[in-house]
Specification:
- Its main location: cytoplasm.
- This is Holliday junction branch migration complex subunit RuvB.
- It is found in: Cytoplasm.
- One of its GO terms (biological process) is DNA repair.
- This protein has 3 domains: 147 residues, Rossmann fold (3-Layer(aba) Sandwich), CATH 3.40.50; 69 residues, Helicase, Ruva Protein, domain 3; 66 residues, Arc Repressor Mutant, subunit A (Orthogonal Bundle).
- The chain is of the alpha/beta class.
- The structure holds adenosine-5'-diphosphate.
- Adenosine-5'-diphosphate (ADP) binds next to helix 1, helix 3 and helix 9.
- The site of adenosine-5'-diphosphate has 20 residues, from helix 1, helix 3 and helix 9.
């Protein structure tokens, strides 16, 4: 069991990738400082904030726990942050764990039986729960109880252990892997979208203040445009540019400094790094622009299928450089143009 103070995160194994939307261990702690603490400080995602505000108010008025909530969206878009804020706004405890961390029934039973009325249990990567654990969760969510089997064979009997009324907040990057029965037990399902560039700019400005760094508006815009519409990436780029500004200059960030430091880091005008470019180049050069199957592509560029699907592709599709078709992945004309490759319409 983890708690808020242990800075838990969906830690990435790709430590060397600057624009990965997953958190690296070194930055989990600093992310904690930059994390907005109230709904008012949480930028964007208006489609979620309004209904959430109402549910929070209603739950407070009735002095009842808020219904179970499922948050889904790409890594780094703010699921953990939002869950934390909900707990703060309600004034309840926030407990955090992750699907892969819950291996035994006893692990989950221990967590659930320690929850107090109204507490929030956040399960990150909830699509990765094993079947037995998931079934325990059904009764816990629906009846606020867990059934424990005592004894073996003909003398075995079920003991029902009551739980306090709690709220489960589940987070997932892969809605399609969530089982129907689990999905149906959530009262609210919210999708976090990629952010607009001006919203990312807002986050960069706020965080520059928290980091006590002076930054010019044009530099904010430049970093925002290269942040893959993702707050976690924006925070990371801001910190790298700040390092550069402090080491090579007097610490103040202007457009030229931001541009030079991102150039040094090989991040282009669309926020693509070497891996994105390798992926698109491989589709164009090795597979005539596609369609190419995910497993073939993964083998060609030596990356895991899951990483390609959850980390690289969503953003490349969002900016219109990649298409997913029933027959595989295709590079679009924008990708050809961006990589300065000749686009041959007849091949597509
Ligand atoms: P997820 O759980 O979806 O992977 P996190 O909640 O850990 O993402 O967010 C990553 C970082 O991005 C946080 O530390 C936080 O500082 C920042 N962040 C995310 N969403 C927002 C937002 N809407 N406003 C301001 N900062 C945000």
């Amino acid at each position: 069991m983890l708690n808020e103070e242990t800075f838990p995160e969906n830690l990435s194994e790709e430590f060397d990738r600057l624009v990965t939307p997953k958190a690296t261990s070194e930055e989990a702690k600093i992310e904690f400082t930059l994390r907005p603490q109230t709904l008012a400080d949480f930028v964007g995602q208006e489609q979620i904030k309004e209904p959430l505000k109402i549910s929070i108010e209603a739950a407070k008025k009735r002095d009842e726990p808020i219904e179970h909530i499922l948050l889904y969206g790409n890594p780094g878009l703010g699921k953990t942050t939002l869950a934390n804020i909900i707990a703060k706004e309600l004034g309840v405890n926030f407990k955090i764990t992750a699907g892969p961390a819950l291996e035994k029934v006893g692990d989950l039973a221990a967590i659930l039986s320690n929850l107090e009325k109204g507490d929030i249990l956040f399960i990150d990567e909830i699509h990765r729960l094993n079947k037995t654990i998931e079934e325990i969760l059904y009764t816990a969510m629906e009846d606020y109880a867990i059934d424990i089997i005592v004894g073996k064979g003909p003398t075995a009997r079920t003991l029902r252990m009551p739980l306090e009324k709690f709220t489960l907040i589940g987070a997932t990057t892969k809605m399609s892997l969530l089982s129907g029965p689990l999905r149906d037990r959530f009262g609210h399902i919210y999708h976090l979208n990629f952010y607009e560039t001006n919203e990312i700019g807002h986050i960069i400005n706020r965080n520059a203040k928290l980091l006590e760094t002076t930054i010019e508006e044009e530099a904010v815009k430049l970093i925002a445009e290269r942040s893959r519409k993702t707050p976690r990436v924006a925070n990371r780029l801001l910190k790298r540019v700040r390092d550069y500004a402090e080491v090579r200059h007097d610490g103040k960030i202007d457009k030229e400094i931001a541009n030079n430091s991102l150039k040094m880091l090989n991040i282009d005008a669309f926020g693509l790094d070497d891996v994105d470019r390798k992926l698109l180049t491989s589709i164009i050069e090795n597979f005539q622009g596609g369609p190419v199957g995910l497993n073939t592509l993964a083998a060609a560029i030596a990356e895991e299928m899951d990483t390609i699907e959850t980390v690289y592709e969503p953003y490349l599709m969002q900016i219109g450089m990649l298409e997913r078709t029933p027959r595989g992945r295709k590079a679009t004309k924008q990708a050809y143009d961006h990589l300065n490759k000749k686009f041959n319409q007849t091949l597509l």
